[in-house]
Amino acid sequence: MLGGLISEELLHLYSYITTSCSLICNYFLIFVLIFTELNHLLTFLSHLSTPGCFRWLLFSFGVVGILTSLIHTWMFPAAHMTEFGYNFWGYRFLDKSTTYGVVGSLVWCFLFYQSFVLLAFHYVYRYVILVNPPWLILMRLNPWRNWVTVAVIADLFYGCEIVYLVKIDFANLCIRFIIVIFPLQETYGIDLYSGNLPGYLCLTYWIRSGDGHWEWTWIPVLSMLLTISIIFTAVVAIVFCIFRIIREMRKVLLREHVESNTRRMQRRLVRALIWQ
Length: 276
Hints:
Structural class: mainly alpha
Strand order of the largest sheet: 1-2-3
Keywords: Membrane, Transmembrane, Transmembrane helix
Protein name: G protein-coupled receptor
Number of strands: 5
Organism: Pristionchus entomophagus
Transmembrane segments: 12-36, 56-79, 100-124, 144-166, 173-190, 218-246
Order of helices and strands: HHHEEHHHEEEHH
């Protein structure tokens, strides 16, 4: 069922262990954020902003981590690269209807890449609070309204991108079904002709024309590149914010009037940023 490389029981055990670790860590983070007062850190990070913004940003990151872990265990996702593109499906949805496979795969993709968007947003918030760049001064006028607006716009843009990607890839499902069925049957023993018609996602970079030549399918390619650019943008934002935050903290640490406790706390925050 799983290609014969690793036993199904071992992969399921791996899925349960990683999900359990993720749930424990994220539940602990949420518990700490709700039931404890982290004044020594949260006050420092939000002293120039509305109290509690940073706490709720961490809270949202933990919630997305929990949801991603649950959907991962629920569907056990897998991907396969072929000569024409990529296939994505959930092993635990192979005995379900097409709707389960398509919707489940779509939800997993959204939550998985949502983590990158949230992490980038997390660093941008820290950058604005600690560095206080003049070109983002408007974010400080009404922090709750402005930050929530930016977050909603970013999520809507990303969500629409995923929906559009799936829509165009399923626009010609008959051709894609013929291309997909043989690799999945030969490699994984997955029968797409079974009575329940299991659902999957398929991204085709090119297809073979009637005369035997390969033809690029440019719309799926461009849509996929745009989706990948979201992750690339998140990585660039994280790296940029890390360097700017470290540089700003070094300036603060060089000041003679800074107390030793503040110096230690800022050094620890730099290490936490890098580890995260």
